Amino acid sequence: MEKSGRHPIHRRRGPNFLKIPALSCLRIIILIVTVINAFGHLASGAAYSVVKLQHLYANREGSNSANKGRGMSSEHFEMLKAHDRARHGRILNTIVDFTLQGTADPFVAGLYYTRIELGTPPRPYYVQIDTGSDILWVNCKPCNACPLTSGLGISLNFFDPQGSSSARPLSCIDSKCVSANQISESLCTTDRYCGYSFEYGDGSGTLGYYVSDEFHYNQYVNQYTTNNSSASITFGCSYNQSGDLTKSDRAVDGIFGFGQNDLSVVSQLNSQGLAPKIFSHCLEGEDRGGGILVLGEITEPGMVYTPIVPSQPHYNLNLQGIAVNGKQLSIDPQVFATTNNRGTIVDCGTTLAYLAEEAYDPFVNSIITAVSQYTQPFIMKGNPCFLTVHSIDEIFPSVTLYFEGAPMDLKPRDYLFQQLSPQDTSPVWCIGWQKSGQQATDSSKMTILGDLVLKDKAFVYDLQNQRIGWTNFDCSSTVNVSVATGESKSIDSGKLNSNGSPPSRILKELDMKLCYCFLFLMSSIVILYSNK
Protein backbone atom coordinates (compact mmCIF):
# COMPACT_ATOMS: atom_id res chain seq x y z
CA MET A 1 0.00 0.00 0.00
CA GLU A 2 1.05 3.59 -0.52
CA LYS A 3 2.74 5.02 2.55
CA SER A 4 2.79 8.78 2.32
CA GLY A 5 1.99 10.01 5.78
CA ARG A 6 1.94 8.96 9.56
CA HIS A 7 0.92 10.36 14.25
CA PRO A 8 0.37 9.92 18.36
CA ILE A 9 -1.66 9.15 21.66
CA HIS A 10 -0.66 8.75 25.18
CA ARG A 11 -2.64 8.90 28.39
CA ARG A 12 -1.63 9.41 31.97
CA ARG A 13 -3.31 8.46 35.20
CA GLY A 14 -5.63 10.79 36.98
CA PRO A 15 -4.74 12.19 40.42
CA ASN A 16 -3.67 9.47 42.84
CA PHE A 17 -5.96 10.43 45.71
CA LEU A 18 -5.39 8.60 48.98
CA LYS A 19 -2.73 6.55 47.15
CA ILE A 20 -5.63 4.34 45.99
CA PRO A 21 -6.09 4.62 42.16
CA ALA A 22 -9.64 5.12 40.87
CA LEU A 23 -11.24 4.79 44.33
CA SER A 24 -14.89 5.74 43.93
CA CYS A 25 -17.12 7.35 46.54
CA LEU A 26 -19.28 4.24 46.56
CA ARG A 27 -16.30 2.12 47.55
CA ILE A 28 -15.40 4.61 50.28
CA ILE A 29 -18.96 4.45 51.64
CA ILE A 30 -18.90 0.65 51.63
CA LEU A 31 -15.54 0.70 53.39
CA ILE A 32 -16.81 3.08 56.09
CA VAL A 33 -19.98 1.06 56.66
CA THR A 34 -17.82 -2.04 57.05
CA VAL A 35 -15.60 -0.26 59.58
CA ILE A 36 -18.65 0.93 61.55
CA ASN A 37 -20.02 -2.62 61.56
CA ALA A 38 -16.68 -3.89 62.84
CA PHE A 39 -16.67 -1.36 65.68
CA GLY A 40 -20.18 -2.49 66.52
CA HIS A 41 -18.95 -6.06 66.96
CA LEU A 42 -16.06 -4.90 69.13
CA ALA A 43 -18.38 -2.82 71.30
CA SER A 44 -20.55 -5.88 71.89
CA GLY A 45 -17.57 -7.87 73.10
CA ALA A 46 -16.76 -9.85 69.97
CA ALA A 47 -13.01 -10.58 69.86
CA TYR A 48 -12.72 -11.63 66.23
CA SER A 49 -14.71 -12.87 63.28
CA VAL A 50 -14.18 -15.92 61.11
CA VAL A 51 -15.10 -15.94 57.43
CA LYS A 52 -15.61 -19.37 55.92
CA LEU A 53 -14.60 -19.62 52.26
CA GLN A 54 -16.35 -22.05 49.96
CA HIS A 55 -15.59 -22.97 46.37
CA LEU A 56 -18.07 -21.39 43.99
CA TYR A 57 -18.91 -24.77 42.46
CA ALA A 58 -18.68 -26.88 45.61
CA ASN A 59 -21.04 -29.83 46.10
CA ARG A 60 -20.95 -30.50 42.37
CA GLU A 61 -20.00 -33.92 41.05
CA GLY A 62 -16.24 -34.30 41.21
CA SER A 63 -15.69 -31.14 43.26
CA ASN A 64 -16.10 -32.38 46.83
CA SER A 65 -14.30 -34.93 48.95
CA ALA A 66 -16.96 -37.59 48.42
CA ASN A 67 -16.42 -37.51 44.68
CA LYS A 68 -12.67 -36.93 44.71
CA GLY A 69 -10.98 -38.96 42.01
CA ARG A 70 -14.17 -39.55 40.02
CA GLY A 71 -13.63 -36.51 37.80
CA MET A 72 -16.23 -33.93 36.87
CA SER A 73 -19.34 -34.26 34.80
CA SER A 74 -19.63 -32.64 31.38
CA GLU A 75 -22.26 -30.31 32.84
CA HIS A 76 -19.87 -29.20 35.55
CA PHE A 77 -17.08 -28.76 33.02
CA GLU A 78 -19.25 -26.57 30.77
CA MET A 79 -20.26 -24.54 33.83
CA LEU A 80 -16.60 -23.88 34.63
CA LYS A 81 -15.90 -22.86 31.04
CA ALA A 82 -18.86 -20.48 31.09
CA HIS A 83 -17.52 -19.01 34.33
CA ASP A 84 -14.10 -18.49 32.74
CA ARG A 85 -15.62 -16.88 29.66
CA ALA A 86 -17.52 -14.45 31.87
CA ARG A 87 -14.33 -13.66 33.77
CA HIS A 88 -12.41 -13.10 30.54
CA GLY A 89 -15.17 -10.76 29.46
CA ARG A 90 -14.58 -8.74 32.61
CA ILE A 91 -10.84 -8.68 31.86
CA LEU A 92 -11.65 -7.21 28.44
CA ASN A 93 -14.09 -4.70 29.90
CA THR A 94 -11.75 -1.83 29.04
CA ILE A 95 -10.91 -0.02 25.83
CA VAL A 96 -7.42 0.47 24.43
CA ASP A 97 -7.41 3.73 22.51
CA PHE A 98 -4.88 5.71 20.51
CA THR A 99 -5.25 9.42 19.82
CA LEU A 100 -4.42 10.21 16.19
CA GLN A 101 -2.74 13.16 14.55
CA GLY A 102 -2.29 13.95 10.88
CA THR A 103 -4.70 14.64 8.03
CA ALA A 104 -5.82 13.20 4.73
CA ASP A 105 -4.73 16.43 3.00
CA PRO A 106 -1.74 15.46 0.81
CA PHE A 107 -0.39 19.02 1.06
CA VAL A 108 -0.37 19.01 4.88
CA ALA A 109 0.44 15.48 6.01
CA GLY A 110 -1.30 12.87 3.90
CA LEU A 111 -1.27 10.34 6.73
CA TYR A 112 -2.50 9.61 10.26
CA TYR A 113 -0.15 8.60 13.04
CA THR A 114 -0.12 7.90 16.77
CA ARG A 115 2.36 7.73 19.63
CA ILE A 116 3.24 4.44 21.28
CA GLU A 117 5.78 3.40 23.91
CA LEU A 118 8.13 0.42 23.71
CA GLY A 119 10.80 -1.13 25.88
CA THR A 120 12.04 -0.95 29.46
CA PRO A 121 12.26 1.84 30.36
CA PRO A 122 9.51 2.88 27.92
CA ARG A 123 10.39 5.32 25.16
CA PRO A 124 7.97 7.07 22.77
CA TYR A 125 7.73 6.43 19.04
CA TYR A 126 5.49 8.00 16.40
CA VAL A 127 4.07 5.47 13.95
CA GLN A 128 1.72 5.69 10.99
CA ILE A 129 -1.46 3.65 11.33
CA ASP A 130 -1.90 1.30 8.39
CA THR A 131 -4.64 -1.25 7.71
CA GLY A 132 -2.82 -2.27 4.52
CA SER A 133 -0.02 -4.09 6.36
CA ASP A 134 0.28 -6.38 9.38
CA ILE A 135 3.41 -5.64 11.38
CA LEU A 136 4.37 -2.91 13.81
CA TRP A 137 7.96 -1.85 13.09
CA VAL A 138 10.12 1.07 14.21
CA ASN A 139 13.50 2.40 13.11
CA CYS A 140 16.33 0.92 15.14
CA LYS A 141 19.84 1.93 16.10
CA PRO A 142 21.93 1.86 13.99
CA CYS A 143 19.91 2.59 10.83
CA ASN A 144 20.94 3.20 7.26
CA ALA A 145 19.13 5.98 5.32
CA CYS A 146 16.65 6.62 8.15
CA PRO A 147 15.44 10.24 8.49
CA LEU A 148 16.79 12.16 11.46
CA THR A 149 14.18 14.94 11.45
CA SER A 150 10.52 15.24 10.49
CA GLY A 151 8.56 17.97 8.76
CA LEU A 152 5.58 16.95 10.90
CA GLY A 153 7.10 18.74 13.89
CA ILE A 154 7.74 15.59 15.92
CA SER A 155 10.97 14.30 17.46
CA LEU A 156 12.16 11.04 15.94
CA ASN A 157 13.58 8.24 18.07
CA PHE A 158 15.51 5.07 17.28
CA PHE A 159 14.72 1.89 19.17
CA ASP A 160 17.85 0.46 20.78
CA PRO A 161 17.51 -3.25 21.71
CA GLN A 162 20.63 -2.90 23.85
CA GLY A 163 19.04 -0.05 25.78
CA SER A 164 15.93 -2.00 26.78
CA SER A 165 16.31 -4.53 29.57
CA SER A 166 13.29 -6.51 28.31
CA ALA A 167 14.19 -6.69 24.59
CA ARG A 168 14.84 -10.11 23.06
CA PRO A 169 15.63 -10.72 19.36
CA LEU A 170 13.48 -13.38 17.74
CA SER A 171 15.46 -16.43 16.66
CA CYS A 172 14.88 -18.31 13.43
CA ILE A 173 13.66 -21.37 15.27
CA ASP A 174 10.95 -19.43 17.11
CA SER A 175 7.42 -20.42 16.04
CA LYS A 176 6.56 -16.74 15.55
CA CYS A 177 9.25 -16.52 12.88
CA VAL A 178 7.35 -19.05 10.78
CA SER A 179 4.22 -16.89 10.98
CA ALA A 180 6.23 -13.76 10.20
CA ASN A 181 7.74 -15.25 7.06
CA GLN A 182 4.25 -15.77 5.62
CA ILE A 183 3.90 -12.01 5.12
CA SER A 184 7.44 -10.91 4.26
CA GLU A 185 10.44 -12.02 2.29
CA SER A 186 12.40 -14.30 4.59
CA LEU A 187 15.90 -13.26 5.59
CA CYS A 188 16.26 -16.09 8.06
CA THR A 189 19.12 -18.57 8.16
CA THR A 190 20.08 -21.04 10.83
CA ASP A 191 22.69 -18.74 12.34
CA ARG A 192 20.79 -15.40 12.19
CA TYR A 193 17.94 -13.65 13.86
CA CYS A 194 14.48 -13.75 12.27
CA GLY A 195 14.64 -11.05 9.59
CA TYR A 196 12.16 -9.40 7.25
CA SER A 197 11.96 -7.35 4.06
CA PHE A 198 8.87 -5.30 3.27
CA GLU A 199 8.20 -3.46 0.02
CA TYR A 200 5.23 -1.11 -0.24
CA GLY A 201 3.10 -0.10 -3.20
CA ASP A 202 4.92 3.21 -3.70
CA GLY A 203 8.25 1.41 -4.15
CA SER A 204 9.61 2.19 -0.67
CA GLY A 205 10.99 -0.61 1.45
CA THR A 206 12.41 -1.55 4.83
CA LEU A 207 14.79 -4.23 6.14
CA GLY A 208 15.03 -5.41 9.72
CA TYR A 209 14.66 -8.21 12.25
CA TYR A 210 12.00 -9.08 14.83
CA VAL A 211 12.31 -8.47 18.55
CA SER A 212 10.03 -9.13 21.52
CA ASP A 213 9.64 -6.37 24.07
CA GLU A 214 7.14 -4.53 26.23
CA PHE A 215 4.37 -2.60 24.46
CA HIS A 216 2.93 0.05 26.78
CA TYR A 217 -0.64 1.20 26.30
CA ASN A 218 -3.47 2.82 28.19
CA GLN A 219 -6.82 1.25 28.95
CA TYR A 220 -9.67 3.73 28.88
CA VAL A 221 -11.94 2.84 31.80
CA ASN A 222 -14.16 5.94 31.81
CA GLN A 223 -13.91 9.65 31.13
CA TYR A 224 -11.91 10.10 34.33
CA THR A 225 -9.78 6.98 34.51
CA THR A 226 -7.11 5.34 32.37
CA ASN A 227 -4.95 2.43 33.49
CA ASN A 228 -1.33 2.11 32.42
CA SER A 229 -0.73 -1.41 31.10
CA SER A 230 1.88 -3.30 29.13
CA ALA A 231 2.25 -6.57 27.28
CA SER A 232 5.10 -8.42 25.63
CA ILE A 233 4.71 -8.37 21.86
CA THR A 234 6.80 -9.09 18.78
CA PHE A 235 7.54 -6.19 16.43
CA GLY A 236 10.02 -5.18 13.76
CA CYS A 237 13.35 -3.46 14.31
CA SER A 238 14.28 -1.81 10.98
CA TYR A 239 17.90 -0.98 10.17
CA ASN A 240 17.61 0.05 6.51
CA GLN A 241 15.11 2.21 4.56
CA SER A 242 14.61 2.98 0.88
CA GLY A 243 12.35 5.14 -1.28
CA ASP A 244 9.97 7.57 0.41
CA LEU A 245 10.80 6.10 3.82
CA THR A 246 14.15 7.95 3.62
CA LYS A 247 12.51 11.38 3.23
CA SER A 248 12.14 13.82 6.13
CA ASP A 249 9.12 15.86 5.04
CA ARG A 250 6.57 13.45 6.56
CA ALA A 251 8.87 11.13 8.45
CA VAL A 252 7.75 9.06 11.42
CA ASP A 253 9.47 6.38 13.50
CA GLY A 254 7.72 3.45 11.85
CA ILE A 255 4.46 1.88 10.69
CA PHE A 256 1.73 0.39 12.88
CA GLY A 257 0.12 -2.41 10.85
CA PHE A 258 -3.46 -3.42 11.67
CA GLY A 259 -3.82 -6.38 9.31
CA GLN A 260 -5.20 -9.81 10.17
CA ASN A 261 -1.95 -11.76 10.52
CA ASP A 262 -1.15 -13.40 13.87
CA LEU A 263 1.75 -10.95 14.35
CA SER A 264 -0.40 -7.82 14.17
CA VAL A 265 -0.64 -6.05 17.54
CA VAL A 266 -4.42 -6.56 17.55
CA SER A 267 -4.00 -10.32 17.14
CA GLN A 268 -1.20 -10.54 19.71
CA LEU A 269 -3.11 -8.62 22.39
CA ASN A 270 -6.23 -10.66 21.67
CA SER A 271 -4.33 -13.96 22.00
CA GLN A 272 -3.22 -12.82 25.46
CA GLY A 273 -6.78 -11.97 26.48
CA LEU A 274 -5.99 -8.25 26.67
CA ALA A 275 -8.09 -6.84 23.83
CA PRO A 276 -11.04 -7.86 21.64
CA LYS A 277 -10.49 -9.02 18.08
CA ILE A 278 -12.08 -5.88 16.73
CA PHE A 279 -10.84 -2.33 16.23
CA SER A 280 -12.28 0.94 14.95
CA HIS A 281 -11.01 4.28 13.72
CA CYS A 282 -12.51 7.68 13.08
CA LEU A 283 -10.30 9.99 11.00
CA GLU A 284 -11.04 13.71 11.17
CA GLY A 285 -11.10 15.31 7.77
CA GLU A 286 -11.11 18.98 8.68
CA ASP A 287 -8.00 21.15 8.46
CA ARG A 288 -6.69 20.21 11.91
CA GLY A 289 -7.17 16.48 11.27
CA GLY A 290 -6.59 13.99 14.06
CA GLY A 291 -9.06 11.39 15.24
CA ILE A 292 -9.06 8.23 17.29
CA LEU A 293 -8.37 4.51 16.94
CA VAL A 294 -9.70 2.06 19.52
CA LEU A 295 -9.44 -1.66 20.13
CA GLY A 296 -13.18 -2.10 20.41
CA GLU A 297 -16.32 -1.52 18.35
CA ILE A 298 -17.61 1.98 17.68
CA THR A 299 -21.40 1.71 17.97
CA GLU A 300 -23.07 4.66 16.30
CA PRO A 301 -26.49 4.88 14.60
CA GLY A 302 -26.57 4.13 10.90
CA MET A 303 -23.69 1.64 10.94
CA VAL A 304 -23.81 -0.76 7.99
CA TYR A 305 -21.66 -3.86 7.52
CA THR A 306 -20.28 -5.81 4.59
CA PRO A 307 -18.34 -9.10 4.73
CA ILE A 308 -14.57 -9.24 4.36
CA VAL A 309 -13.52 -11.36 1.38
CA PRO A 310 -11.93 -14.44 3.00
CA SER A 311 -8.39 -15.75 2.50
CA GLN A 312 -6.96 -12.44 1.30
CA PRO A 313 -3.83 -10.68 2.62
CA HIS A 314 -5.64 -7.32 2.84
CA TYR A 315 -9.09 -6.04 3.81
CA ASN A 316 -10.81 -6.86 0.53
CA LEU A 317 -14.48 -5.99 0.11
CA ASN A 318 -17.02 -6.90 -2.56
CA LEU A 319 -17.61 -3.64 -4.45
CA GLN A 320 -20.49 -4.23 -6.85
CA GLY A 321 -21.05 -0.85 -8.48
CA ILE A 322 -20.76 2.97 -8.41
CA ALA A 323 -23.53 5.54 -8.76
CA VAL A 324 -23.15 9.28 -9.38
CA ASN A 325 -26.15 11.41 -8.43
CA GLY A 326 -28.09 8.18 -8.00
CA LYS A 327 -27.36 6.95 -11.52
CA GLN A 328 -25.50 3.65 -11.80
CA LEU A 329 -22.36 3.84 -13.93
CA SER A 330 -21.93 1.37 -16.76
CA ILE A 331 -19.06 -0.65 -15.31
CA ASP A 332 -18.73 -4.41 -15.51
CA PRO A 333 -18.93 -5.73 -11.89
CA GLN A 334 -16.06 -8.09 -12.70
CA VAL A 335 -13.80 -5.03 -12.71
CA PHE A 336 -14.10 -5.01 -8.90
CA ALA A 337 -14.17 -8.78 -8.31
CA THR A 338 -11.45 -10.18 -6.07
CA THR A 339 -8.85 -12.26 -7.93
CA ASN A 340 -5.08 -12.49 -7.82
CA ASN A 341 -4.68 -9.06 -9.42
CA ARG A 342 -8.09 -7.47 -8.91
CA GLY A 343 -10.20 -6.41 -5.97
CA THR A 344 -11.20 -3.53 -3.72
CA ILE A 345 -9.07 -2.84 -0.66
CA VAL A 346 -9.64 -0.60 2.39
CA ASP A 347 -6.29 0.90 3.41
CA CYS A 348 -5.83 3.81 5.82
CA GLY A 349 -2.11 3.79 4.97
CA THR A 350 -2.95 5.14 1.50
CA THR A 351 -3.58 8.88 1.21
CA LEU A 352 -5.83 9.17 -1.85
CA ALA A 353 -8.00 6.59 -3.65
CA TYR A 354 -7.30 4.50 -6.73
CA LEU A 355 -9.82 3.15 -9.24
CA ALA A 356 -9.26 0.23 -11.55
CA GLU A 357 -8.51 1.45 -15.07
CA GLU A 358 -11.85 0.26 -16.51
CA ALA A 359 -13.76 2.23 -13.85
CA TYR A 360 -11.71 5.43 -13.77
CA ASP A 361 -12.80 7.08 -17.02
CA PRO A 362 -16.56 6.45 -16.54
CA PHE A 363 -16.31 7.89 -13.02
CA VAL A 364 -14.38 11.04 -13.99
CA ASN A 365 -16.53 11.68 -17.06
CA SER A 366 -19.72 11.49 -14.98
CA ILE A 367 -18.34 14.10 -12.54
CA ILE A 368 -17.39 16.42 -15.41
CA THR A 369 -20.85 16.05 -16.95
CA ALA A 370 -22.60 16.77 -13.64
CA VAL A 371 -20.83 20.14 -13.16
CA SER A 372 -20.60 21.17 -16.83
CA GLN A 373 -23.11 24.03 -16.45
CA TYR A 374 -21.02 25.58 -13.64
CA THR A 375 -17.38 24.95 -14.53
CA GLN A 376 -15.15 23.23 -17.05
CA PRO A 377 -12.22 20.97 -16.17
CA PHE A 378 -8.57 21.62 -16.81
CA ILE A 379 -5.54 19.47 -16.05
CA MET A 380 -3.21 20.43 -13.20
CA LYS A 381 -0.34 18.13 -12.27
CA GLY A 382 -2.08 15.29 -14.09
CA ASN A 383 -5.40 15.66 -12.23
CA PRO A 384 -8.76 16.89 -13.62
CA CYS A 385 -9.39 20.15 -11.75
CA PHE A 386 -12.16 22.75 -11.55
CA LEU A 387 -12.07 26.48 -10.85
CA THR A 388 -15.25 27.55 -9.12
CA VAL A 389 -16.67 30.25 -6.86
CA HIS A 390 -19.56 28.01 -5.87
CA SER A 391 -19.72 25.74 -2.85
CA ILE A 392 -18.63 22.28 -3.96
CA ASP A 393 -21.51 20.76 -1.99
CA GLU A 394 -23.92 22.75 -4.16
CA ILE A 395 -22.61 21.87 -7.62
CA PHE A 396 -20.70 18.57 -7.33
CA PRO A 397 -22.69 15.32 -7.31
CA SER A 398 -23.03 12.75 -4.56
CA VAL A 399 -21.38 9.39 -5.11
CA THR A 400 -22.45 6.00 -3.77
CA LEU A 401 -20.29 2.91 -3.63
CA TYR A 402 -22.41 -0.24 -3.51
CA PHE A 403 -20.82 -3.00 -1.47
CA GLU A 404 -22.37 -6.35 -0.67
CA GLY A 405 -25.28 -5.44 1.61
CA ALA A 406 -23.95 -1.97 2.46
CA PRO A 407 -23.88 1.31 0.51
CA MET A 408 -21.22 3.94 1.21
CA ASP A 409 -22.49 7.47 0.57
CA LEU A 410 -19.77 9.96 -0.34
CA LYS A 411 -19.77 13.75 -0.35
CA PRO A 412 -17.74 15.85 -2.81
CA ARG A 413 -14.93 16.21 -0.22
CA ASP A 414 -14.58 12.43 -0.28
CA TYR A 415 -13.38 12.48 -3.88
CA LEU A 416 -12.07 16.05 -4.27
CA PHE A 417 -9.10 17.85 -2.74
CA GLN A 418 -8.22 21.53 -2.90
CA GLN A 419 -5.12 22.92 -4.58
CA LEU A 420 -3.74 26.42 -4.68
CA SER A 421 -5.00 28.43 -7.62
CA PRO A 422 -2.31 29.44 -10.15
CA GLN A 423 -3.61 33.02 -9.97
CA ASP A 424 -4.57 32.85 -6.26
CA THR A 425 -8.17 33.71 -7.19
CA SER A 426 -11.02 31.21 -6.96
CA PRO A 427 -10.46 27.88 -5.20
CA VAL A 428 -9.28 25.01 -7.35
CA TRP A 429 -10.73 21.58 -6.63
CA CYS A 430 -9.23 18.47 -8.19
CA ILE A 431 -10.46 14.90 -8.42
CA GLY A 432 -8.39 13.01 -5.87
CA TRP A 433 -9.22 9.54 -7.15
CA GLN A 434 -6.35 8.33 -9.27
CA LYS A 435 -6.15 5.72 -11.98
CA SER A 436 -4.63 2.52 -10.61
CA GLY A 437 -1.18 1.92 -11.99
CA GLN A 438 -0.03 5.42 -11.08
CA GLN A 439 0.69 4.12 -7.59
CA ALA A 440 2.55 0.94 -8.54
CA THR A 441 3.18 -0.88 -11.79
CA ASP A 442 1.42 -4.06 -10.66
CA SER A 443 -1.80 -2.52 -9.36
CA SER A 444 -3.54 -1.27 -12.52
CA LYS A 445 -6.57 -3.45 -11.83
CA MET A 446 -6.86 -2.78 -8.09
CA THR A 447 -9.29 -0.37 -6.42
CA ILE A 448 -7.87 1.08 -3.20
CA LEU A 449 -9.86 3.27 -0.81
CA GLY A 450 -7.49 5.47 1.17
CA ASP A 451 -7.83 8.30 3.70
CA LEU A 452 -9.56 10.62 1.24
CA VAL A 453 -12.55 8.24 1.31
CA LEU A 454 -12.22 6.85 4.85
CA LYS A 455 -12.13 10.20 6.69
CA ASP A 456 -15.20 11.63 8.44
CA LYS A 457 -16.56 8.14 8.98
CA ALA A 458 -16.56 5.73 11.89
CA PHE A 459 -15.01 2.50 10.57
CA VAL A 460 -15.22 -0.84 12.37
CA TYR A 461 -13.01 -3.84 11.54
CA ASP A 462 -14.78 -6.81 13.12
CA LEU A 463 -12.21 -9.56 12.69
CA GLN A 464 -14.14 -11.97 14.87
CA ASN A 465 -17.12 -11.93 12.51
CA GLN A 466 -15.10 -11.10 9.39
CA ARG A 467 -16.93 -7.92 8.44
CA ILE A 468 -16.27 -4.19 8.12
CA GLY A 469 -18.79 -1.48 8.98
CA TRP A 470 -19.03 2.29 8.60
CA THR A 471 -21.22 5.31 9.02
CA ASN A 472 -20.72 9.00 8.29
CA PHE A 473 -19.63 10.69 11.52
CA ASP A 474 -18.12 13.85 12.98
CA CYS A 475 -14.86 12.39 14.27
CA SER A 476 -14.19 15.39 16.53
CA SER A 477 -17.17 14.46 18.72
CA THR A 478 -17.74 11.75 21.33
CA VAL A 479 -17.82 8.19 20.02
CA ASN A 480 -19.58 5.28 21.71
CA VAL A 481 -17.48 2.14 21.94
CA SER A 482 -18.76 -1.26 23.02
CA VAL A 483 -16.67 -3.67 25.08
CA ALA A 484 -16.75 -7.44 25.41
CA THR A 485 -19.61 -7.49 27.92
CA GLY A 486 -21.88 -5.47 25.64
CA GLU A 487 -21.52 -2.36 27.78
CA SER A 488 -21.04 0.89 25.86
CA LYS A 489 -18.53 3.56 26.84
CA SER A 490 -18.06 7.05 25.41
CA ILE A 491 -14.73 8.53 24.37
CA ASP A 492 -14.59 12.21 23.51
CA SER A 493 -11.96 12.18 20.78
CA GLY A 494 -12.40 15.86 20.15
CA LYS A 495 -11.40 16.89 23.66
CA LEU A 496 -8.37 14.70 24.29
CA ASN A 497 -5.20 16.68 24.74
CA SER A 498 -1.96 16.01 22.95
CA ASN A 499 -0.95 13.08 25.13
CA GLY A 500 -4.40 11.51 25.24
CA SER A 501 -5.35 12.54 28.78
CA PRO A 502 -8.98 13.17 29.72
CA PRO A 503 -10.07 16.74 28.92
CA SER A 504 -10.56 17.99 32.46
CA ARG A 505 -10.07 16.94 36.07
CA ILE A 506 -12.37 19.54 37.60
CA LEU A 507 -15.34 17.22 37.97
CA LYS A 508 -13.21 14.40 39.29
CA GLU A 509 -11.51 16.65 41.84
CA LEU A 510 -14.90 17.96 42.95
CA ASP A 511 -16.14 14.40 43.27
CA MET A 512 -13.14 13.45 45.39
CA LYS A 513 -13.49 16.52 47.60
CA LEU A 514 -17.03 15.45 48.39
CA CYS A 515 -15.66 12.02 49.22
CA TYR A 516 -13.14 13.60 51.58
CA CYS A 517 -15.88 15.54 53.36
CA PHE A 518 -17.97 12.40 53.69
CA LEU A 519 -14.95 10.44 54.92
CA PHE A 520 -14.20 13.08 57.59
CA LEU A 521 -17.82 13.08 58.73
CA MET A 522 -18.07 9.31 58.95
CA SER A 523 -14.68 9.03 60.68
CA SER A 524 -15.95 11.36 63.38
CA ILE A 525 -19.02 9.18 63.82
CA VAL A 526 -16.82 6.09 64.11
CA ILE A 527 -14.68 7.74 66.81
CA LEU A 528 -17.73 8.81 68.82
CA TYR A 529 -19.31 5.38 68.44
CA SER A 530 -16.17 3.56 69.59
CA ASN A 531 -15.87 5.74 72.73
CA LYS A 532 -19.31 4.78 74.01
Please tell me about this protein's structure.
With 532 residues, the chain is α+β, with helices and mostly antiparallel strands. Helices cover 18% and strands 32% of the residues. The protein contains eight helices and 30 strands. The protein has helices at residues 25-43, 74-91, 175-180, 265-271, 357-370, 392-395, 451-454, 506-530; strands at residues 95-103, 111-118, 123-130, 136-144, 168-169, 195-199, 205-220, 226-242, 254-257, 278-283, 291-295, 297-298, 304-307, 316-317, 319-324, 327-328, 343-346, 353-355, 377-380, 383-387, 399-403, 406-410, 416-419, 428-431, 433-435, 446-449, 457-462, 467-472, 478-482, 488-492. The strands form five sheets. Strands 1, 2, 3, 4, 5, 6, 7, 8, 9, 10, 11, 13, 27 and 28 form a 14-stranded mixed β-sheet that branches. Strand 29 (478-482) and strand 30 (488-492) form a beta hairpin. The chain starts with 24 loop residues before the first helix and ends with a helix. Residues 1-72, 80-92 and 494-515 have low confidence and may be disordered.
Radius of gyration: 28 Å
Report mean pLDDT, rounded to a whole number: 78
Instruction: Tell how many strands the DSSP assignment holds.
Output: 30
Number of helices: 8
Beginning-to-end CA distance, first to last residue: 77 Å
Strand portion: 25-35%
Oligomer: single chain
* Biggest pleated-sheet summary: 14 strands, mixed
Category by helix and strand content: alpha+beta
* Helix share, percent: 10-25%
Q: Enumerate the spans where pLDDT stays under 50 for 5 or more consecutive residues.
A: 1-72, 80-92, 494-515
Q: What global shape is seen?
A: globular
